[in-house]
Design a protein that fits this description.
This protein has strands at about 5, 10, 20-25, 35-40, 45-50, 70-75, 80-85, 90-100, 115-120. The protein is globular and about 40 Å long. The mean pLDDT is about 95. It is mainly beta. The protein contains no helices and 9 strands. The strands form 2 sheets. The protein has a 5-stranded mixed sheet with strand order 2-9-8-4-5, with no helix packed on it. The protein has a 4-stranded antiparallel sheet with strand order 1-3-7-6, with no helix packed on it. Helix content is about 0%, strand content about 45%.
């Protein structure tokens, strides 16, 4: 069974950058598509992007396209979310999760959710 732990959250000024990490234990993340999600206070959880298992293709949502990128490091069994040009609407708890199949927009297709890491954007 795969367990995921996110880290790297914190406070950043608008326009700043942050790198989040999602480290897996129990099995190689290479065999899974890995998604990044966020949930702001009082809002539903939304998918931000996903990296495929087959060829590391990325599938960013419109809200983060051009600002957030996702990458794998098989050596450390981690998936990273590089966030740039952070906006006041980006604060949320950020999560990663896996899917044993192609990237999907349906959150119910994902499993092994990590506990999340908090991101704050303020000046």
């Amino acid at each position: 069974q795969v367990q995921l732990v996110e880290s790297g959250g914190g406070s950043v000024q608008p326009g700043g950058s942050l790198r989040l990490s999602c480290v897996g234990t129990g099995r190689s993340l290479r065999v899974y598509a890995v998604g990044w999600f966020r949930q702001a206070a009082g809002k539903e959880r939304e998918i931000l992007t996903c990296i495929s298992s087959s060829d590391d293709s990325e599938f960013p949502s419109d809200s983060v396209k051009g600002r957030f990128t996702v990458a794998r490091d098989d050596a450390t069994n981690a998936v990273y979310l590089d966030m740039s040009r952070l906006k006041p609407e980006d604060p949320a708890k950020y999560y990663c999760a896996i899917e044993f199949g192609p990237c999907s927009d349906d959150l119910s297709d994902y499993e092994s959710w990590g506990p999340g890491t908090q991101v704050t954007v303020s000046s």
